[in-house]
Specification:
eight-stranded mixed sheet; alpha/beta; Urease, subunit C, domain 1; globular; 2 domains; 463 residues; binds zinc ion; eight-stranded parallel sheet; 13 helices; TIM Barrel; binds N-(aminocarbonyl)-beta-alanine; 18 strands
Length: 463
């Protein structure tokens, strides 16, 4: 790969990247004799002149084929991982689910079967723990040995995934001992269910009431509570899909106190607002996710959190449901609308737009979308960096290309785009997964099943 600007989390250099097999062999000063000789004998030479060369994106929060309220998220591992590749994401970490009454191992096995032989890019799993008991706590230790080192718990969704404070404390105590990371969905689900029932009783059934019944204060409250439980347990905690100023303030205070508290946000909380939920008719259903989109003033706080590193990862929480027949399940009752937005294809481009708009630096883009997720979830230095020995997961990125996002041209298996009509500057031109070109000039040239399961180590930010 000759002539590009190689961008890492710490800087940008003019360099050629030499790939042998699945790995990066060397990163050498641009135009060196070494690179020229290597290129003369190479099977493929990719011209990266006037382009950026960045490590493939790592999206640590996706939901392919996820069950929700009698339906499944619309992307399979095949379509979803292919869409990820189009957008320069070469690793996804999806959430396997422990069904109530089953074991963690059964949940993981079910998701391994869904993904095996289908993925365009490499993948790993977190485990959603639905029953915290002696058996699942013991299983956590075994899963860490199998490369599944992070466990999601829910303070929301009573009766479905909800864990009470005692269960959360026990899981955190276990994680404190075994090196696992508890990932927290922090919304006070008990209070939210009261607000939802009250709204429906008043006849407030439109999608916009999804936001008003899940106020940001209840994300802040749950975030505070989870941090205190983590302190009692002596465990780290990672907040998924953080959306609210109040929740961010709790994370900032905890980090200022030196605690192992981490958080991600998602493009929807940076670019979209609760106004979308009030679109005419039932259109707002396209924007129903939890936590909900927030009033527009929360966006500036999220961008600030990315700058200060209180938010250290951008994931997508990709959980697509078609408007037709899936989101429509909630017509007449917003609480029955499947929760989630599509986004795995556009994370790199949307956050690059933050660079174009002067909100973050180029290096920070790479850090947020690739390097920190790799370190947070035990994949570094195999992933997340352009360096000798790393997997050749590489993106040749044209920072000046223009694109208009649209459901008509995206590759996700969903019938609408949450970012319909967005004009962005920047686009992937060539994407390599472990040395193999998978996307080139807008065409998918990979194969399903190229992507392999990744056994991850534990959180590399912990001392
Ligand atoms: O609405 C969302 N976020 N759906 C996906 C499930 C979750 O809680 O992450
Ligand atoms: Zn969640
Ligand atoms: Zn999620």
């Amino acid at each position: 790969m000759l002539g590009g600007t190689v961008v890492s989390a710490t800087g940008a250099v003019e360099a050629d990247v030499l790939v042998e097999g699945e790995r990066i062999l060397a990163v050498v000063a641009r135009g060196s004799a070494l690179a020229r000789d290597f290129a003369a004998g190479a099977d493929t030479v990719i011209d990266a002149a006037n382009r950026l060369v960045v490590p493939g994106g790592i999206d640590p929060h996706t939901h392919m084929e996820r069950p929700f309220g009698g339906t499944f998220s619309a992307d399979s591992f095949e379509t979803g991982s292919r869409a990820a590749a189009f957008g320069g994401t070469t690793t996804i970490i999806d959430f396997a689910i422990q069904s109530r009454g089953s074991s963690l191992a059964e949940g993981l096995e079910a998701w391994q079967v869904k993904a095996d032989g289908r993925c365009a890019v490499d993948y790993g799993f977190h485990l959603i723990v639905s029953d915290v008991d002696e058996s699942s706590l013991t299983e956590m230790d075994a899963l860490i040995g199998e490369g599944v080192t992070s466990f999601k718990l829910f303070m929301a969704y009573p009766g479905v995934f909800y864990s009470d404070d005692g269960a959360i404390l026990q899981a955190m105590q276990r994680a404190a001992g075994n090196g696992g990371t508890v990932m927290m969905h922090a919304e006070n689900g008990i209070a939210i269910d009261v607000l939802v029932a009250q709204a429906l009783a008043r006849g407030e059934s439109n999608p916009r009431f999804h936001a008003s019944t899940r106020p940001s204060l209840l994300e802040g409250e749950a975030t505070h509570r989870a941090i205190q439980l983590a302190r009692v347990a002596g465990a780290p905690v990672y907040f998924v899909h953080l959306s609210a100023t109040e929740a961010l303030a709790e994370v900032v205070a905890a980090r200022d106190a030196g605690l192992n508290v981490f958080a991600e946000t998602c493009p929807q909380y940076l670019f979209l607002s609760a106004d979308e939920l009030a679109r005419p008719g039932f259109e707002g259903a396209k924007y129903v996710c939890s936590p909900p989109l927030r009033p527009v003033e929360h966006q500036a706080a999220m961008w600030r959190g990315l700058v200060t590193n209180d938010l250290s990862v951008v994931s997508t929480d990709h959980c697509p449901f078609c408007f037709s027949e899936q989101k429509e399940l909630g017509a007449g009752d917003f609480s029955r609308i499947p929760n989630g937005l599509p986004g795995v294809e556009h994370r790199m481009d949307l956050i690059h737009q933050g660079v174009v708009d002067g909100r973050i630096r180029l290096e920070r883009w790479v850090e947020l979308c690739s390097t920190t997720p790799a370190r947070m979830f035990g994949l570094y230095p195999r992933k997340g960096v352009v360096a000798p020995g790393a997997d050749a997961d590489l993106v040749v990125y044209d920072p000046a290309a223009h694109q208009r996002l649209s459901a008509a041209s995206h590759h996700m298996a969903v019938d609408y785009s949450a970012y319909q009509g967005f004009e962005l500057t920047g686009r992937c031109e060539v994407v390599l997964s472990r040395g193999r070109v998978v996307v080139e000039n807008g065409e998918y040239v990979g194969v399903a099943g190229h992507g392999k399961f990744l056994q991850r180590s534990t959180n590399q930010y912990l001392v």
